[in-house]
Amino acid sequence: MTSVPSRRAPQVAGPNLVNIEVMRNRSELFRAVCSKLISGTEKQCKGMQNGDNMRLGQRVKDIQFMKAELEQRLGDILVEIEELVALQNRVTKGLEACKEPLRVTNLCLEERCLLFAPMPETLKNSKNNTVEQFAGAAAVISSDAKIKVKPLRLVFQDEPARHTHTGAGSEGEIRGPVHRQLLFAVTPMEWEKMSDVNLAKADKQKDGSASLRALVDSILEQTSGDMQKQVQATTEAFQLNIQEIRSAKSQMEDELAKILPELNSQQRIRDDLLGSITENQDALNLARSRLALRHQRPAKEQCHDQAQSHLLSEVQQLAAHIRILREAVVRSEEKQRLLVRSQRELQENIRMKAHSLYIDEVVCSQLRELVVIHGF
Q: What family classification does the UniProt entry report for this protein (predicted)?
């Protein structure tokens, strides 16, 4: 019997093709998944980068806008500070301009106080008030100038924050967690709020400075005008006072010229009265002597005759005349004392008026020539 060969292929040792094919299929599937993952990741990264770029660009625009606003405020503040410094220099010059008029006024007051005479209206109070106003304005300006530096400091303090925020997009990813924590310690809303506060402070300081400058300008103009008016009024008062002193001095001199002859006349009258008293006293002594002699007559001859009556009447009349004349002498002496007192008062007043006229017309006029009030 012939043997029939088997159809089963001979078994040869080698790799399992089925497993290899399965592994290959899985590898292809994994590659497809990875490609899809890579594609999706790239899309997401590009989307995130585009979003970050948009947000960073907007952030940069916001920062640039805020920076421009702050720089504008900074420029306005610097200009305002320069104007305040110029205004403070004006006030300082105004204070210096007040020193000489005040010194001259005090000298005039001192010269007039030595006279113990009534004074006209002076500049002392107005000049002191003016100096106080300037000093107050200077103090306010000095204080306000210090306040005006604060917005400038705030602006400079805000500069590093802006630069820090500007560099956050490029350096934030390469720095550590601690730096990122410090970097983002202030939220954008807080940063914007602080910037708005700085802008508001700068605007407030600028408005306050403008108001202050307007106030000080008005004070300077008003003070200059008041001082010029006061100087003019004082000059007119001096001229009027000089005229009054001249008139009073002239009247006193006229009255003194009348008193001197009257005093001499009164002296002559007194001398005449004394002479008349002497004559009447001699006549009285004569009459009394005659009466005494008539009393020496014999008793039978001592009758009250007409001669005796006339002698007694003569004695009474002469005594009355002497009494009246003595009273007139007393009144004459009183008149002389009054006239002498008036003469001395007039002479003293004339001397004082002459001295006062010299002070007002010569000394004060020469001193006041140095007073020149200009606009501050």
A: Belongs to the tektin family.
